[in-house]
Amino acid sequence: MKQGLFLVVSAPSGAGKSSICQKLLRLCPKLDFSVSYTSRLPRPGEINGRDYHFVSRENFRTRVKRGEFVEWVENFGHLYGTSRKIMEKYQQRGRDLLLDVEPRGAKKIKKLFKEAVFVFVLPPTRADLMKRLKKRGHENKDAIKARLSQAESELKEISWYDYIIFNRDLDEAVQQLRAVYIAEKCRKEHLAAEIKKFMKK
Q1: What is the pTM of this model?
Q2: 134: helix, coil or strand?
Q3: DSSP bridge pairs for 96
Q4: Averaged in consecutive runs of 10 residues, what is the pLDDT profile of the chain (201 residues)?
Q5: Which residues form the domain of 177?
Q6: Total structural domains in the chain?
Q7: How far apart are the C-alpha atoms of 139 and 134, rounded to whole Å?
Q8: Quick check: 72 and 47 in contact, CB under 8 A?
Q9: Is 50 contained in some domain?
C-alpha cells in the first residue's frame, strides 16, 4: 500500500504558522488538514469541524480516558488534542496529513510515528517574535507574559526538528514548506511500495 506522509508543523505563538499552513493547503490539494479537538470556545469566524472540533472540557476529559488522542496538552487553561482515529485512518489509506501541533504534542507524535516529518517555523528575529506577541490587543498583560514565557521554552525544542523555516516573507515561507513536502514525498522510504511494484518482473 502507498505510504502517506504526516507533515507536523510547530511554531511559537505569533510566528505566522497558521497563515503558512492555510496557504500550503490551497497549493497542495492532496494534503489534508488534521482538525484538532479543543475545550476552548470558538473565536469569531471559526467554524466547528473546520478550524477545531469544539467540545466541552468534560467531553475532552472523557476522550482522554478513552485513549482517543495521540497527544493532548493544556495551553493557557484550554485543552487541545490530536485524534488517534484520524491519524490511523490516514496511515491505513496512505493519505497525506498536515498537523498544526505545538512542540510538546509534536514530540509525542514523533515517538509513535517515527516516519513523520517535523518542521519548526520561526519569525525573522527573536525581537520580532516578542513584538508580535506584545501586539496581541485582545489579551491582557498576564496572558502576553505567559505567551512570552512559553515561546522561550518552545524555542529550546528546535534541535530535534527536521526542518526550520524563517518566516521573513509569508509567500517565501509557504514555498519553502511546499518544497519540504514535495522533497519528502520523493524519499525512497515513502515510495517503498511503489518501488517494489516497479521492480517486480
Answers
A1: 0.90
A2: helix
A3: 31
A4: 87 90 96 97 94 97 97 92 95 93 94 95 87 68 77 89 96 98 92 87 66
A5: 6-199
A6: 1
A7: 9
A8: no
A9: yes
